[in-house]
Amino acid sequence: MKLFFASDLHGSLPATQQVLAEFDRSGIETLVLLGDVLNHGPRNPVPDGYNPPAVAELLNQYAERIIAVRGNCDSEVDQMLLAFPMMSDYAWVMLPSEQRLFVTHGHLYNSEKRPALREGDVIVHGHTHIPLAERNGAQFIFNPGSVTFPRSGFDASYGLLEGGTMKVVSFTGQTILEKSIL
């Protein structure tokens, strides 16, 4: 199973275009959006190319290939522009290895506040804008970083799950972090 992860687009059209170009190049069938899709939120500056309606229009072209969860900056008004559901606080993705991915934004559940998980499960979240790929206790934690507002000196990045390995990749093609979850 292969998955492509992006988090914290915050309504930036250039960042969304960059994500979708990499997604298309990857050949992966499923794009997982980890919230904060259209709105920049009150604590962030207005991002470069801020255009939520255009971001929604572009993402809607991929609607049947998207799994999305709600971020703390997402609202029911945002959902009205999108052709795919994104108002759930979390989603479960079952891997062929019997492991489960708990996919969420990170403002409600994260590495510090986890739902009931089994050993070897993976919690996948954004929200912090800081990439992470590690085993933490009995679970794995994966954060692809941020597309629009990367923090802590990291480049804008996205995530991949391929062959039991989770990777954070910058848009220059450099692997930032990599962790086997098998």
Question: What do these coordinates show?
Answer:
- It is built from 3 helices and 11 strands; from the N terminus they run βαβαβαββββββββ.
- It has about 180 residues and is an alpha/beta fold.
- The protein has one domain: Purple Acid Phosphatase, chain A, domain 2 (4-Layer Sandwich), CATH 3.60.21.
- The chain has a 6-stranded mixed β-sheet, covered by helices on one side. Strands 4-5-6-8-7 form a 5-stranded mixed β-sheet, with no helix packed on it.
- A hairpin with a 2-residue loop joins strand 9 (about 155-160) and strand 10.
- The chain is globular, with a radius of gyration of 15 Å.
- The model has no long low-confidence stretch (mean pLDDT about 95).
- This is Phosphoesterase.
- One of its GO terms (molecular function) is metal ion binding.
- Belongs to the metallophosphoesterase superfamily. YfcE family.
Characterize the biggest β-sheet. 6 strands, mixed
Broad structural category = alpha/beta
Gyration radius, in Å:
15 Å
In total, the number of strands is: 11
CATH topology, which one?
A: Purple Acid Phosphatase, chain A, domain 2
Order of strands in the sheet with most strands: 3-2-1-9-10-11
Content of β-strand:
25-35%
**Ranges with pLDDT <50 over ≥5 residues?**
none
Distance N to C terminus: 13 Å
Name of the CATH architecture = 4-Layer Sandwich
Give the domain tally: 1
Overall pLDDT level: 96
Keywords: Hydrolase, Metal-binding
GO molecular function: hydrolase activity; metal ion binding
Organism: Vibrio marinisediminis
Pfam families: Metallophos_2
